[in-house]
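Troubleshooting log. The previous run stalled partway through. Resubmitting the same two chains, unchanged.
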Amino acid sequence: MLESFSDVIACSPIRRAVVACILSGASCSLLSVFVVLMRMPLIGVSMSHAAFAGAVIGMVLGFNPFLSGLALCLLVAAALGPLSDRTDLDPENALGIVFSFLMGVAFLGMGILTRTKASALNLMWGSLLTLSQTDVLILATVTAALLLFVATMFKEIGSVLFNRRLAASSGVPEKGIYYFLLFLTGAVVSSNLATVGGLLIFALLVQPGATALQLTYDLRLFFVISVLAGVGACLSGLAVSYVFDLPSGASVVLMSTIFFAAAFVFSPKRRKSKLNVKDWKDA
Amino acid sequence: MIEVANLSVTKGDTRLLSNVNLKVSQGELVGILGPNGAGKSTLINVIAGFERFDGALSLWGQRQAWRRPRSTRLRIGYIPQTFEVDPAFPISAVEAVLTGAVGRVGLLRRAGVSEKQDAMRLLEMMRIGHLARRPLGQLSGGERQKVFLARAIIQKPDILLLDEPTSNLDIAVQREVLNLIDEIHLAHSITMLMVTHDFNLLPASMERAVLLKRGRLVFDGEIRQALSGENLSKLFDYPLATFDQDGRRFVSYA
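Second attempt completed without errors. Output:
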């Protein structure tokens, strides 16, 4: 199966971009469920900047940007978990400090880079049409790991999303789940640097989940809608980018915003008076 | 069953609990009473495993660290003050109750028919069965608190910790929630510790109370003795009086 998958992505840049779009949309939008429901958008921002800063450091020092991005992401994830659990430190302040520090590191690296500034800039907004086969394979592995995590731990995830303290009190390994989630965030963000980039990925970490929030009260459906919104935004963004010769990352983000705006305008949850109360009672 | 010896909790420069000693037997319902900042919630947070501490805590005769294995956490239920839930959050009342059974069901297994039936039965017991499919965030504070009660019971705990379960509720719902706590205590013989600072809102089956003041345990005994004008005036540094009506003791300004 891996061989046939390799054949598909080896075929042409366009086909590879389409596969990457689906993987990128699926991985980011699965994560966005957590980002939106646990109200941790700053964690998403910090991780995306960690990946970006790590990749730039990699370029300066001559390492693989993905690996250095992933390494810094995991380092930040390892620090953020215990930091956000400390009661004597405001988590928002801690995240603000981490975020600004990483921005500083990234731009310092950009300043030091004497050559290949263009490839560093590509890490900011990505380029779906110039992906390598390895980029797509890494993305596929990370997406599969995230899918497996959600599928096997769904009830524990639901419990943690609802309330971490209550989950802990009823014997759910909430710290393990939360920290593993941070780890996966790092992996997803760094593997998506090449597709949508370290700055624009933030949109995909928030908007698909925010879109689903407008449309359903069912957590399973929430994940499904979020993935459809994310993959839909990526594929339509790629099409727009190809047809109008626009940057692909920016097109994806704009399409994602349009999806959210449509869900917001037509949200049945916002028009509560029109909801069928009978359904709640009879379901 | 619960034994606390020389228990202290310090945060930064502040001592939240200082050398607290307490023993609670199986099936007791003990009130933890005191003014704001007395350390009441800190005490049950320590027993729940949410808080680091100095001193000794034993549960069922076994010494406990602040981090507990799953098997121990499963035996301790926790009910917080009612809290706001985003009206758009994707969880229904019955699903919220079922989150209490997640730890007991275990990893890589799905909640079965019996857990779902238990959840519905408990919501019926709380008299909100008709709201089972309603999004949790669209329930009133009282209805949500009943969901949290059901959520704690489905866990089948041996110890139930209640942190101001009636705060932020209207007066009629407060009495309803207290009656439910009584019902649960009598029906399941669960050992309960209930934190409150409102002495006029105590379950009828509460027979013992400990009074905390600035992190120190200043009284431990029978509830009617605890609620004497003299004790309470000292506790709050304010003149308070008590009176009895319909077999219950009430507190008022002196």
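Takeaways: Chain A has a mean pLDDT of 85. The two ends of chain A are 40 Å apart (CA to CA).
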